[in-house]
Amino acid sequence: MEYREEEFLMLSGIQHFTFCRKQWALIHIEGLWEENLYTIEGRSLHEICHNSEFHESRKNVIISRGMPIFSRTLGALGECDVVEFHKNKNGITLANREGHYDVYPIEYKHGEPKENDCDIMQLVAQAICLEEMLICHIDKGAIYYGKIKHRLEVELTSEIKCKVRNSFEEMHRYFNAGYIPKVKSSRKCNACSLKKLCMPKLHKMTNIKKYLDEHLGTGGDDI
């Protein structure tokens, strides 16, 4: 299946979706957003990386920053923080460049490696876009973490690519239906910039009087 351009979703949404389906829906369906320390730090790092006019060559490597990408099979568009093209006789050709190159996407994150696959899923989605655009196969990429000032190489397997494709199919279904998934409150809610808008604890409340007593002090007398 191929999506039309007007159906494209933001590629970066896969990171939100993997972290929390409701967070993704609130941002990408409802258009809600609130900054916190993590989002501000992350945005600052990405502003440094994203300069689509900047290209650099270092020996056998070409570095492109802020490269626009899209995929009709995912129905997504976005940007790569950094894409490195490594000279390799078995790689692809590039316009106005001599030789052949392997494609190596790099995603930048301000924090440290996570226990979940949020960052990996975003990197893999970028790789799928690049594969489709450049007609190539990408089996490796990297995530650079600002807190540890180090990049970690990621193997881009067929299994994780399939997981990304399935996630985008689910995202399109939710988006088209305007559906906001219900989720259970967990520890990760504390790091979410939408915690105040989502009010995850409210979903645990079966008694509205109890909620009003605890948060508004009204006693619910007027309800």
CATH first level of the largest domain: Alpha Beta
| Most strands sheet | 7 strands, mixed
* Number of individual domains: 2
Structural class: alpha/beta
End-to-end separation: 50 Å
User: Could you tell me the number of beta strands?
Assistant: 7
> How much strand?
15-25%
**Mind telling me the C-alpha Rg?**
20 Å
Q: At the third CATH level, what is the topology name of the largest domain?
A: Lambda Exonuclease, Chain A
The percent of residues in helical segments reads: 25-40%
* Succession of helices and strands: EHHHEEEEHEEHHH
Write down the overall mean pLDDT: 82
Summarize the structure.
This protein is α/β, with parallel strands linked by helices and 223 residues long. It has helices spanning 13-19, 21-28, 37-49, 118-134, 158-177, 195-198, 208-215, and strands spanning 9-10, 55-58, 61-71, 76-92, 101-109, 140-145, 150-155. It has 7 helices and 7 strands, in the order βαααββββαββααα.
